Fold:
Amino acid sequence: MSVISTDQWELYIKTLCETGLRIKSARQAEISWQILSARLADDAEFVELVELAELEYGEKLQAAAAKRGMDGVTRELQYSDPLLSMLLKKFIPAFQDKLRLDATIKGGVLAVNTPITDPKEWLEKYKD
Structure:
């Protein structure tokens, strides 16, 4: 494994703050993905720095979204609002979808919506 200098790690974190992209930041700092992965697995303090850098990038995205929402946009420079939305969801937990579906099904009662309100009428209709 090659030795990575402190300057390279600092460049990685700086680039990550600017881009939000781990692989691009590693390439910029001349750090292999394998070395980066190993450090992320073994160094909790470094993981905190990476998370902080990604939060900083997320705040830049949030500022851009706020500016667009409050100031509008000029037509000369066009952005993709859906793409910006996806980036916000990736980097800022508050923008992430909250939907959670538990599809575990274990027997039970089947509820059927029906306009029949009289039990005798229901029995007559569904007795077979």
Notes: The mean pLDDT is 84. The first helix runs from residue 6 to 19. Residues 6-99 form one domain.
